[in-house]
Amino acid sequence: MALKIYTKTGDKGKTSLIGGTKVPKSHIRIETYGTVDELNSYIGLLNDHINNVHSNKMLREIQDRLFTIGSSLACDPDKEPLMKIPDLKEEDITTLEKEIDAMNEVLPAMKHFILPGGSIAVSTAHIVRCICRRAERLCVNMQEHDMFVEALVIKYLNRLSDYLFVLARYIAHINNVEEIAWKPRVNQK
User: What CATH number should be reported for the domain holding residue 167?
Assistant: First the structure.
């Protein structure tokens, strides 16, 4: 027998963290891991729009790390030490940094701000980057409200947004899509 997708336990605006603690669906912890889930979904969309075996593999790995982050954020921090929650490692951040450096090796120097756009894949990469920054801000907000967030989570999200920015440029480069330079309008008197 298949599991039912609906439980009806959230009909009154509450949900359970991993560990069983009930919280309102508006709780910042729920907002934060929901944003990480949104980020993960958009990375799947981005992956569907690009055709580069190495980048596709890397994005799948990132999706796995985001599930790890989501699990950590969805867990009652008082009960987490008693559970087997997957963990993030410093090497995950190092991997992102190496990927950024490798892509930057083939990219032209950036001499101006870049407007998102030029192709669906490039635009999607920028949307993903923005969602990643929002997830990072929410994690920082949790910390500022004395809610536990693993420090590596914030560091990973920060580096991931950098990776996504460079990936957007890299996608443009390998697909011969011209970057759109931002040319600010200056009022002349």
Answer: 1.20.1200.10
Q: What is the pTM of this model?
A: 0.88
Measured distance CA(104)–CA(56) in Å, rounded = 18
pLDDT digits (tens, 9 = 90+) for 59-76: 999 999 999 999 888 777
pLDDT (tens digit, 9 = 90+) per residue, 132-187? 999 999 999 999 999 888 899 999 999 999 999 999 999 999 999 999 989 888 87
Task: Identify the domain containing residue 147 by its residue range.
Answer: 22-74+116-180
Q: Which long-range contacts (CB under 8 A, 24 or more apart) does 134-143 make?
A: 134/35, 135/32, 135/35, 135/36, 135/39, 136/161, 138/28, 138/31, 138/32, 138/35, 139/32, 139/73, 141/28, 141/32, 142/28, 142/29, 142/32
Beta-carbon-side half-sphere exposure of residue 180 (alpha carbons within 13 Å):
10
Residue 146 to residue 62: CA distance in whole angstroms: 27
Residues 6+ apart with CB under 8 A from 28: 138, 141, 142, 145, 147
Other CB atoms within 10 A of residue 32 CB: 26
> What CA–CA distance (Å, rounded) separates 167 from 18?
33
Residue 45 lies in a domain: yes
Per DSSP, 80 falls in state G
